[in-house]
Specification:
Strand 14 and strand 15 form a beta hairpin. By secondary structure, the chain is α+β, with helices and mostly antiparallel strands. The longest helix has 17 residues. Helix 4 packs across helix 5. The strands form 3 sheets. The protein has a 10-stranded mixed beta sheet with strand order 4-5-7-16-8-13-12-11-10-9. It has a 4-stranded antiparallel beta sheet with strand order 1-2-3-6, with helices on both faces. Belongs to the FemABX family.
Length: 330
Amino acid sequence: MPILAEPYSDRWADEWDAFVAERARNGTLLHTRRFFAHNDANARDDASLLFRDRARVIGLLPAALLGADGAEAVLHSHPRSTYGGFVVAPEVGTAATLEMVDLALAYARERGARRVVVRNPFRIFHAMPSDESDYALWLRGFTVLSRELEVAVPTGSITPGDALAHFDGKTRNQVRKAQRAGVVVEASDDYAAFWPMLEENLRARHEAQPTHSLEAFARLRACVGPDAVRLVLAQHDGRVIAGAVVLVANARALHVQYIASRADALHLCPVNAVLHHLVEMAAAGGYHYLNLGMSTEDAGRRPNLGLFAFKEGFGGRGVLRETLALDLAT
């Protein structure tokens, strides 16, 4: 029987999230309806698809239709997430993936889209090889819009308590400097202590704001559940001087969403202490990877080599995120 594509409806929310959590070979927290529920805009322009084989879900495409009232409507997977892309079951092979891509393109045309954009997730999140959709998109004419490189630490090979042995010499020395200075890193729920520090960092370094306000992030935590989000804070003499917010992407990987520190405490190397704590946490939790986030700018065209070197000092290496696009024929 042919695969059927079904537009998402809220009545499928539980089935969608169960598929991501229990059957998908490349699904993550950022593919779930729980995650998308934290932003009301996702309900207004949702254009997601479920793919079924004999009523059984075998794939998903989280997506939004942008500019639906204009001449340049875009079906985007996904504009309000770090990534989207096709989420598939273990049994889905190349032929089925090609069929799903064709169904998605037909749906985009039906909705009046003039362009389709797909931002793929990182391969470190995959439980097994899942590149069929990359190939299928290329075969159907998609081209690369951007290649962004992040850095992930392979924590699956680290024995808990032995993370320092996997760092380079400079990084080890900086972690030990923080420890000698009395910097203490612990799990916390005090997001109100972290957020002003984050906002100041982004304002001073990039004239930017966090993707989420403190209130918006509180809503995200409420939607995805407290176990899916972690906060660690570094303190010195009772004062918070650094911290990081981490998302539990899936059973394989943790993703560092935000890192911040106080400018007047950099000599204490608190970020080094925070990342050492996170590497140990990932190793102890059985996670294969700790993703330290993006180190490029301008859609990947400008590498921040200093930031790459800093993250690579913890044993991290590059993970690629590609964004692909296709202009649809009129």
